[in-house]
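Dear Dr. V.,

Thank you for agreeing to look over these. As mentioned in my earlier message, I'm a first-year student in the group and I'm still getting used to reading structure tokens, so any feedback on how I've presented them would be very welcome. I ran two proteins. I've put each sequence directly above its structure. The first is here:
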Amino acid sequence: MKPYCIFISCLVFFAFCSLARSDFSHGPDECCFSFSNVKIPVKQVKSYHTTHIECNSNGVIITTKAQRMICVDPTEKWVQRLINLVDDQKIKMSHSSSGDSD
């Protein structure tokens, strides 16, 4: 009976460790391991976000309107311009939707 209890105890312990590791970890969900050099037209961009601080390299993840996620290098001039254009579009859209009642 003792080997059976030890086995069950070990099984429960490993299951708990596995659960704690997967559900309660706070590591990054998305990191960039390589960057695309293909310039993405602003009209194809839905949104963007930067990678988590715990990722090995800083990156920007661009989500296209076709729901593709593309990693790009934030130090590239074309990426910085693209981010500025997307931000400008969002500002214009928010002003036009809230400013029509004047």
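The second protein is here, in the same arrangement:
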Amino acid sequence: MKRLKVLTVFGTRPEAIKMAPLVNRLEQHNNIESIVCVTAQHREMLDMVLDLFNIAPDYDLNIMKHGQSISDITVAVLKGLEEILLKEQPHIVLVHGDTTTTFVASLAAFYQKIKVGHVEAGLRSGNIYSPYPEEMNRKLTSSLANIHFAPTKENYSNLLKEGVDGKNICITGNTVIDALLQVVKDNYVFHNKMLNDINYEDKKVIVMTCHRRENWGEPMVNIFKAVAEVVENNRDVEVIFPVHLNPHIRKLAQEILGDSCRIHLIEPMEYEEFANLLNKAYLILTDSGGIQEEAPSLGKPILVLRTETERPEAVKAGTLKVIGVSKKQIVEEVENLLTDEIIYRQMATASNPYGDGKASDRIIQELLNRIST
């Protein structure tokens, strides 16, 4: 029997984090020929993850350009992958989640009549413009995929409702837990000295991320003003905010948050550093998707700075709460967790719905069982 030829395609930092443990396992398997293509929809942040997990791509489209639009990404990925697919003729293309790289790579594979496996399939917010363009990317990818690797039963149900044959859906858990368990360490020492100097035992450290496109403008102003008010009201609180590279976000963060000595605006962090920072946090404020899955494994309450989430199983489990982008609401919800030990403990000890760190092995076994060579 020929080895199964698997081409994995990803282009952003979040994709890379979640695909890295799967790529590592694919490359170790004797019955699989693993080929990796990165589009570099993100560049610097992607490269940090590749270095951490020792992944050397076979192909790098290197598409990132200053000020690129979604259309620019779409055209560059579609054209760049055509030649690679024609040359390699893999048995299956693996994509992840909901980026423009994910959707376009699936489309490129479809054009060559090559099977598509969708890792982290079935997430839905119910609003095609939030998150944008991710919600539509994941729906379109589902229409093109042959095998759907759904992290949870809820994701499985979402796909069934859209007409996907249940025989083509596998519940695997989320690969981000595989990645997280590889990098979080006791007594971790940060490269950034300031992070080592913070008293995580006596201070209530809030780690925040905020960058989603739908939060640009007034929502982000509300979020930053709410955080400033929380810090002003609570002397035992410190905030660590790795600020996205987008210049508009950085300017706004500096204007509203830059004058407080207990709000630390720092550069984006490598994944290992950031995962270990989450592990030391008291609570997490985020509009990110992936962190909603990671933090429950670390016993950290998450307040989601969005009006909806495509991860409702975490809401049901009690590990996270969606609090919107109203300044008043954000202040109230954060201060509830800072002052009410019962509410805090309920969220911190809720069961993680995203798996046991063995999703990659389940995906590989399904590929070997389902794809003929």
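From my reading of the second output: The first strand starts at residue 4 and ends at 10. The longest helix spans residues 70-88. Does that match how you would interpret it?

Kind regards,
E.
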